[in-house]
Give the backbone structure.
Amino acid sequence: MSEIAALVFDVDGTLADTERDGHRVAFNRAFSDAGLDWNWSVALYGQLLTVTGGKERIKYYLSEFNDSFTPPEDLDGFVADLHAAKTTHYKAMMADGVIPLRPGVERLLRQAHRAGVPMAIATTTTMDNVTSLLENTLGAESIDWFAQIGAGDIVPAKKPAPDIYLWVLDRMGLNGNQVIAFEDSAHGVAAAAGAGIDRIVVTTNEYTVGQDFSQATLILESLEPDDRPAVDLATLRTM
Ligand code: XBP
Ligand code: MG
């Protein structure tokens, strides 16, 4: 296996546990603002996470879980407006510090930054959401720690498609066997593996524990697991 040339991080569920108390709440606030009686419970949201991408998730909800709503003629425009409102709510929650980084994430990011190990982000969420999380947890300067940030609609197909990882690898001039990917979900692992990444660290969360991580190299409950040494560069260099 090649020397590690870069660390590539997923965001939602990996850098921070953003789904249950972040994105889900932001969606519900946007629905309420729009006068919709839609409420995504914790359990329903777990089912909706089958589909990555907030706009795609709203359409999935309408097609599979809400047959009483008559969609407007311009469904794409309606969904885009709802999603923009949701992103505004999500950014406000980030600014209020609602969602912290997961255990061990800050230490590893700072260690890699200090050691000059290139880092990138490969996520389905929007660039706005990425920068608001980084600004409000590590400070605005941390955005520059990442050589590339691949986010949201920059690619035609979202995870589990490999597109976002291929985009990041291409922009960094690297092959999949030169990086380590950090993910939280089966969709994310499939996307990274599909891009030829053969070293994938998974940190599970309540929505993803028990998913298919057969293509992952290391599966942990966090980067600072209670019963094992914290994951640092020395650990990663043994992978
Ligand atoms: C997880 C996702 C995103 C978020 C919601 O992204 O699937 O869609 O759930 O964010 P990641 P948006 O690849 O970081 O795990 O509403 O901005 O899509
Ligand atoms: Mg994720």
In short: The CA atoms of residues 56 and 79 lie 9 Å apart.
